[in-house]
Specification:
alpha+beta
């Protein structure tokens, strides 16, 4: 993966990293991926992963994209992908999918594309290969589009999917089934985290996505 130097007086994200003695992109990526997976209080605040000491796939990768732009590295691209979230990807949602006779639900995820290679810094063991073969569509977005644009794109995709696949649920119903899948994941994770250190939780292979947009 390419590397570059983080320079002074380039922007707020560069300063946040430099204040932590992080002066190159590789070290910044390592810092981000090792932050705990957690929802941020305000995703519109580009510094939220520093304020909250954690983040999601959206906020972590948006931060790295902003860092790259501040240092004139526009080839570090933020990607929004929609993939098949199924029981193979995470077994915890199997009961809900079975209950509603669904094989999968299209889910949104953010990651980076750099020189035609893909990188996922959501957590230390995140890999593009984990969802590559389940991708349905992907597009470039900007760091300030992880809120409104991500949700709108996801819902538009779901509307088309419902129509094309003759899914017997409305958009609102599918969104609620998706929310139940998220609750399944959260419930299990909350039980597990009681018996795990924060480092173990950050490395959990089941913490796969920005589970709530």
């Amino acid at each position: 993966m390419k590397n570059f130097t983080v320079h002074k007086n380039k922007g707020v994200i560069s300063e946040e990293f430099l204040n932590r003695n992080i002066s190159d992109f590789h070290t910044a990526c390592k810092f981000v991926t090792e932050l705990p997976y957690k929802r941020n209080a305000d995703k519109n605040n580009i510094k939220c992963i520093f304020d909250d000491l954690g983040g999601t796939c959206s906020t972590k990768h948006a931060t790295l994209r902003k860092l790259a732009l501040e240092n004139h590295q526009s080839d570090v691209i933020l990607i929004l992908g929609i993939f098949k979230m199924d029981a193979e990807y995470t077994f915890k949602i199997k009961n809900t999918l079975d209950k509603f006779s669904l094989n999968y639900i299209p889910e949104a995820h953010n990651y980076l594309k750099i020189n035609d290679e893909y990188f996922d810094f959501t957590k230390p063991n995140s890999e593009y290969s984990q969802f590559k073969n389940k991708l349905l569509v992907e597009k470039e977005i900007e760091y300030n589009e992880i809120m409104t644009e991500k949700v709108l794109f996801h819902k538009r995709f779901l509307e088309d999917w419902i129509s094309d696949e003759n899914v017997s649920y409305s958009l609102d119903e599918i969104w609620e089934i998706r929310e139940q899948c998220i609750r399944d994941l959260q419930k299990s994770d909350e039980t597990e985290i009681q018996n795990l250190s924060s480092v173990c939780f950050a490395n959990s292979p089941d913490v796969r996505d920005d589970y709530k947009l």
